[in-house]
Write a structure and sequence with these properties.
The complex is a heterodimer of chains A (251) and B (280). Chain A is built from eight helices and eleven strands. Chain A is of the alpha/beta class and 251 residues long. In chain A, the strands form three sheets. In chain A, strands 5-6-7-3-8-9 form a six-stranded mixed sheet, sandwiched between helices. Chain A has a three-stranded antiparallel sheet with strand order 2-1-4, covered by helices on one side. Chain A has a two-stranded antiparallel sheet with strand order 10-11. In chain A, helix 3 crosses helix 4 and helix 4 runs parallel beside helix 5. Chain A is globular. The radius of gyration of chain B is 21 Å and the shape is globular. Classes of the chains: A alpha/beta (251), B mainly alpha (280).
Chain lengths: 251, 280
């Protein structure tokens, strides 16, 4: 399929932190309208680096990035300050900050947009609730509402199902499916292989691009072993896999 | 009341109330940004500038500004050395500056004004000091109102802030510049050591009591102004040092706020399972 005119096109991208060694190498992929791409890899595999490069926070060492339309970042909710005194509506309205001059109040139309966005993610009645008092799944939905207020054509979602219960996960999935139906592009960072199978395509990263394509063709034992190295355990003759994330805990 | 009849005390009272309100509002953001250490460091690092101004007979305001500039430059230079790290750089620079300031101030040929530099001279407030404090209050109010949304985005979600059109590093730098101006303006009245009390304690009280950000800022400004009023009245009634009385009043107001509304339990952080099974 041709990528010409696709909302997101990345060709030969490499990026590094502070001009040091490359943190991510040779990434080439594209996403057509309404497509959802899972960005799969272990911790430190380059998922966050890719997002930061797409957001323009990291200089692209080589390669090109074309984004057609607004790009929004939806972080993990635990990265936000839960003790900060802002309501769900305050957070959703942050999506309008970029187009509101500092000397003006948030426009009435944007306030209405913020309320509609919260309504859309099923949180209209929690608009006045403090963000930190919401459940993990509700917080994630508020951050998606913020991206809707930004009117983002491309959403970068960082582990959107981390720390949320099954009901919230289903609610978030339904919202994301709706967004795809509107032609928005989703990039979903995950280290969960089963998660990755749900989306249209998978981009496997381990410091460099390992593979890109439809899940059924891409998530082979060889690709998973190359992506996760010793962290992957293959069961049932290659049909089932377990990704074991090693975390170091100080004692 | 005597405090309302004496021109000297009236000026001191106005100065304390204005500084309290300005520092309280600013302090809320500094506490949310977790920059208390930076505030303390800036205040202490300006001591050599204050001493040199006292030696030359120049306005303390000028010395404080010079001291802050030199300290900020030294900290920025030291922090660039990645082998040292920013926190160590600040610690070493501030300790050196404070030691140098004390050494200069305690030299035999220097007029004995160290106490005034460290603890301020609220009762010596001149009309010019009042104008400086009022200008500071206006500057803080305008800057915080103008930067409210950017500050909120940068503090709440620094990771996503750039995608919202906000640069957290620039915002934090702006806030520190505002802090430097506030410290310079308040140091004449409260001194190098006590100025921090008026920045931190009313803000902590406001954060404890306020449900929204705007309520926290309003409550902190009110608590700062009230600390100035109560401290000065207590100082006049009990014949205690004015600056120290204002600082203690601010801390007492925070203690009261903490009693009225104890700190909530910290929310538990979600833990990620070490083993994630996937099917195919």
């Amino acid at each position: 399929m041709s990528a010409a005119g696709a909302p997101l096109e990345v060709v030969g991208l490499s990026a590094s932190y502070g001009g040091g060694a490359l943190a991510l190498r040779d990434v080439t992929f594209s996403a057509a309208e309404g497509e959802a791409v899972a960005v799969l890899g272990p911790n430190g595999g380059g998922k966050t680096t890719l997002f930061r490069a797409l957001l323009g926070e990291l200089p692209v060492t080589t390669g090109t990035v074309h984004v057609r339309g607004t790009l929004a970042y939806v972080p993990q909710t635990e990265r936000s300050r839960l003790d900060f005194p802002v309501s769900a509506l305050d957070v959703a309205l942050m999506g309008a900050y970029g187009r509101t001059p500092w000397y003006r109040r948030i426009a009435r139309a944007d306030r209405a947009l913020g309320r509609r966005a919260l309504d859309r993610v099923g949180l209209a009645e929690r608009a006045g609730t403090r963000f930190g008092a919401l459940s993990g799944g509700q917080r994630q939905r508020v951050l998606i509402a913020r991206a809707l207020v930004q009117d983002a054509r491309v959403l970068l979602l960082d582990e959107p199902f981390a720390g949320v219960d099954r009901t919230s996960e289903e609610a978030i999935m339904a919202i994301l499916d709706e967004l795809r139906g509107e032609g928005r592009v989703l990039l979903v960072a995950t280290h969960d292989v089963e998660q990755a199978r749900r989306w249209d395509r998978v981009l496997c990263l381990a410091g460099a691009q390992i593979a890109f394509g439809p899940p059924a063709e891409t998530l082979t034992t060889a690709v998973l072993e190359a992506t996760y190295g010793e962290e992957i355990v293959v069961l049932d003759s290659g049909h089932r896999a377990v990704a074991v994330q090693h975390h170091w805990h100080p004692h | 009341m005597e405090i309302l009849r004496s021109g000297l005390l009236q000026r001191a009272l106005l100065e304390a109330v204005i500084l309290g309100a300005a520092c309280g509002g600013l302090g809320v953001w500094l506490l949310h940004v977790r920059a208390t250490y930076a505030a303390e460091s800036l205040a202490h690092a300006m001591l050599p500038g204050l001493v040199i101004a006292a030696l030359l007979g120049a306005p303390l305001l000028l010395g404080a500004a010079g001291g802050v500039l030199v300290a900020a430059t030294l900290i920025a230079l030291a922090a660039r050395d990645t082998r040292v790290g920013a926190e160590v750089a600040v610690g070493v620079t501030v300790t050196t500056a404070f030691g140098l300031g004390a050494l200069l101030a305690l030299a035999p040929d220097v007029p004995a004004r160290l106490g005034e530099l460290l603890f301020g001279d609220l009762l010596g407030t001149s009309p010019a000091d009042l104008v400086a404090a009022a200008a500071l209050a206006v500057l803080v109010a305008v800057a915080l109102a103008a930067g409210h949304r950017s500050l909120a985005a940068a503090v709440f979600d620094p990771v996503a802030a750039p995608s919202l059109g906000v640069r957290p590093a620039r915002i934090e730098l702006g806030l520190l510049a505002l802090l430097a101006v506030a410290v310079v303006a308040a140091v004449q009245a409260l001194g190098n050591l006590l100025v921090l009390a008026l920045i931190v304690a009313p803000a902590a009280a406001g954060i404890r009591l306020g449900a929204s950000l705007r309520a926290q800022i309003a409550l902190a400004a009110a608590a700062g102004a009230l600390a100035g009023l109560l401290g000065l009245v207590a100082s006049a009634a009990l014949d205690t040092a004015a600056g120290a009385s204002v600082a203690l009043a601010a801390v007492a107001l925070y203690a009261l706020a903490a009693l009225v509304r104890p700190a909530p339990a910290q929310p538990a952080r979600a833990r990620r399972a070490p083993l994630e099974a996937v099917g195919g």
